[in-house]
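Appendix B, example 12.
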Amino acid sequence: MTPTEEPDLTLRRAGSEDAASIAELYTRARVAAVPQMPPAMHTAAEDLRWFGTQLARPDREVWVAERPGEILGYAMVDAVWLDHLFVRPESTGEGIGAALLDLVKSLRPDGFALWVFESNTGARRFYARHGLVELERTDGSGNEERAPDIRMAWPGADPLAFYHRMVEEVDEQLGDLLARRVALTRAELAHRDGDLDAPGREREIAESIAARVPELGPERLARIVRAVVAESLDAARPGSGTG
């Protein structure tokens, strides 16, 4: 058990026997959060089954905040993500969310990240007050609600090391994407009599990416795309070597 500033509030690791209480809390919290959060996509029965599987996973921790006889909030974390932090609607404003977030910080001193819906301004203010920063925004195409969201992070005791690890992760993903780009370009070339229409494709790709990465702007993105397309074509041609 973990002490908190609230003398009658206890934080403890959840077990499989807590699945029903946590699922019921989550369902109620999601309903109460509309319209700041989009409506949930699953039924209460589906939530219960899902939490049962999560509590059995060895790579995931679920912690609950409770007062005698009642679970008032919970947090779900893995090695680098805070996946859930919810409090009973009638218990918000009592410091329960802050106690759970402080616990997660103690469990993940090297930092962690989370996703929050862009529309959930209350949660965004809460996380910002507790030292989390906004890193990136998406159009929501990656979540099942299809609602724009924001990646926030607590960078831990060594922010430089935390951000460096995140950059390395992106670099690895970029390397995988470039390898796929070359392979697909080679396959496409094999089914064409001549070269691909690079200029037209460059404009199309740059405009598409600019809608998702406005910070780079269309001119920078055009230069990046031009280089990626040209080098992919060069690498994909028969007999091409590294240079």
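Helices lie at 19-33, 44-55, 96-107, 121-129, 159-189, 198-212, 217-236. The first strand starts at residue 10 and ends at 13.
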